[in-house]
Specification:
The structure is a single chain. This protein is mainly α. The chain has one domain. The chain contains seven helices and five strands, in the order E-E-H-H-E-E-E-H-H-H-H-H. A three-stranded mixed beta sheet has the order 3-5-4. Strands 1-2 form a two-stranded antiparallel sheet. Helix 1 packs antiparallel against helix 7 and helix 6 runs antiparallel to helix 7.
């Protein structure tokens, strides 16, 4: 049961805040890990763009472009335009980190080309989760404002919580997508001899640090969802 001290919700302190701290740490960790291995250059001297191109060619993919984008850790694959966008520190760099990140994004392109199940499922739920994430808090707030209507107000609250749960669903589906892209990247790096055995360890650490940010984000959303259930489930029982 949630407890309040001087108006402060302890479910936030003990449930949500630790996950937020984990998320902040994961974000700092991925940047520090990337920076560490961005300063270590691969003995094969291939760039991130070249590494991504090797993965595409090895999988018979010829309709995906590779472009440079500004920023740090802004790398992504856009399935709408079939473009891999690599950041300034990845596209032209021959570092261990850049090769790992570039091959990871190429792994996403391979997932789309091969109709990988989880990525198809994620694409299917995106429209629903986008709507749900926008409606969740407004519905909860409206439900609270209309509390004088009795059970109807909590119906709106529960619908809002259900909409918020769609965000967690999306993040949970994203986890296997990201893990698989990283596994594809490491296999490709090893199979196509882009890094030596010691350098591969650095690429793995870079991608593992990135994967932790997705786990932390899902943990934050789960904690927030549980908090909403505890808060409003308890209020509903008190009204009954």
């Amino acid at each position: 049961m949630p407890r309040y001290y001087y108006g402060f919700d302890t479910t936030y302190l003990f449930l949500v805040l630790p996950c937020i701290i984990l998320s902040l740490w994961a974000s700092m960790n991925v940047r520090s890990t990337f920076n560490k291995y961005a300063s270590k250059f691969a003995s094969r001297r291939i760039t991130g763009a070249q590494a991504a191109q090797r993965v595409l060619q090895a999988n018979g993919i010829s309709n995906v472009r590779i472009e440079k984008i500004s920023g740090q850790l802004t790398d992504h694959f856009d399935p709408r335009t079939n473009v891999i966008r690599l950041s300034d520190g990845v596209y032209d760099s021959t570092s261990i980190a850049s090769i790992g990140v570039a091959c990871h994004e190429a792994g996403h392109a391979v997932q789309h080309a091969t109709q990988y199940g989880p990525i198809k499922l994620r694409a299917a739920v995106i429209p629903v989760t986008n709507i749900g994430s926008r409606l969740a808090m407004p519905l909860i707030l409206i439900g609270l404002l209309l509390s004088y209507l009795g059970n109807f107000s909590y119906t709106l609250v529960y619908i809002g919580i259900g909409c918020f749960a769609l965000t967690l669903l999306f993040e949970l589906i994203t986890l296997p997508v990201e893990f698989d892209a990283s596994n594809r990247a490491i296999r490709a790096i090893d199979e196509y001899d882009m890094l030596n055995s010691e350098e591969i360890k650095g690429a793995k650490k870079t991608l593992q640090a990135a994967a932790l940010t997705y786990i932390a984000a899902a943990a934050v959303t789960l904690a927030q969802l549980l908090r909403l259930i505890l808060l409003f489930g308890n209020r509903s029982r008190r009204r009954d």
